[in-house]
Amino acid sequence: MTIAAINEQLLRAIGVGVALLDLQSLRLRFCNDTFRGWFGEIEVGSKLLDQFRDFDTEALRAALASEGRYTTETTFRLRRRTMTVAMDFNRALDEDEPIAVLVCQNISRIKELESMIDSYSMMVERNTREIKREKEQVEKLLLNMMPRSVYEEYKTFGIVTPRLYDPVSVVCIDFIGFSEMVSAHEPAVIVSELNDIYTAFDRIGEQFGCARIRAVGDLYIGVAGLPDPTEDHAQAAANAAIRFMRYLNQRNTSHPIQWRCRVGIASGAVVGSVVGVQKYIYDVFGPAVITASQLRYKAEPMTICGNREVVERLDDQFSATETGSITLSDGREETVFRIAAEMRAAQER
């Protein structure tokens, strides 16, 4: 057996498709069994590349003429399977006749793995985007529940150190006849109304630096001067309270349900922290909250009552009239002032 015959037998036995092409005509001179198994029975002398659609013959010729090598891939269906083969053309000589040696390797499994990796990568990216979006929603929700500095502390350490804020000004609001209103209207109507009103209150509070801390039913509590201390916290609380009532007055002119509120404002100390474990919430506690809550009971509908500490911090655009006193929960007597002129001041501006 000649060396050429041995080589031919070896080529027929390996799992790599091998073919020899005449370099000038690109006609098939030889192919092994693996090659035939992939591409079908091909007669010697036929133009092999005619059966490959979109094959760039000119690029093949140019590459073999210059670098002597050209690589590409082809994908086709073989017995209900999609098969991808890497094709490696190399220029060679056969008894001084230029030929091209074509070596084909089955890379279908590699392509499948690459496709799986791409699929997993896309899934990871999609999950990452989803996690990021959920994180942003959680962050937005938490920022609605607590000041940003408190949120940053909670995010970093998992806890919030209780802090004493002294002084701040607390605005406490409730609505007149709320229980009767709830009984007289559908729940969805009441919730929709409160949503509109509290949204407006939040916007006004943000404008004047009086952030909502809590809203339960008809009770709305906002605080000015927290968490960053401000000198004009009483001013901010009074301005926000004025705009709250001004908004309700304007709203009542065009809405069938009439909302009337009473407002208590108190300056003093509060303690702020996150309370609870599973249903945690940022809240404030202390004498200013209690005093503001009690002062609202002394307020007539659509008026504001404040304590002496608030009144002493207001400038001359506000006026205050002493209307009596209340006994606080600790037994102390607190003088009550009706801050009535600020309504006019707000309307003149």
Record keyword descriptors for this entry.
5-stranded antiparallel beta sheet, 8-stranded mixed beta sheet, adenylate cyclase activity, rod-shaped, disordered C terminus, guanylate cyclase activity, single chain, 349 residues, alpha+beta, 43% helix
User: Segments where pLDDT lies below 50 for 5+ residues?
Assistant: 342-349
Helix segment tally = 11
The profile of the biggest β sheet is: 8 strands, mixed
Which percent range fits the helix content? 40-55%
**Terminal Cα span:** 111 Å
Overall geometry comes to: rod-shaped
The Cα radius of gyration reads 41 Å
**Beta fraction of the residues?**
25-35%
Query: Would you report the number of β strands?
Result: 13
Q: What's the order of the H and E elements?
A: HEEHHEEEHHEHHEEHEEHEHEEH
On the 0-100 scale, what is the average pLDDT?
87
Structural class: alpha+beta
